[in-house]
Design brief:
single chain; mainly alpha; 3 helices; 2 strands; elongated
Length: 80
């Protein structure tokens, strides 16, 4: 789903344009991070040392989820 499609759905639900754009950005970050974690796991290898580390996308996912929660007044039916 593209950012424009997400914004269109959110605007169709009666949300303000500025909130739709913010929500769409956070939604896309969350989706990308979740897909990366699902594909690569919670623990990954450091690219230089090959030591096991937490997947950096977990922090991205958590930040995006925090943004989405801050925008909890946005009517997001049709996305989830």
């Amino acid at each position: 789903m593209t950012k424009q499609e997400i914004v269109a759905i959110l605007e169709g639900n009666g949300n303000r344009k500025d909130l739709c754009v913010q929500y769409a950005d956070a939604y896309l970050e969350y989706q990308e991070a979740t897909e990366n974690i699902g594909r690569n796991g919670l623990i990954v290898q450091h690219p230089r040392t090959t030591n096991p580390i937490d997947n950096p996308y977990m922090a991205v996912r958590d930040r995006a989820l925090k943004k989405l929660r801050e925008l909890r007044g946005v009517k997001s039916e049709g996305l989830w």
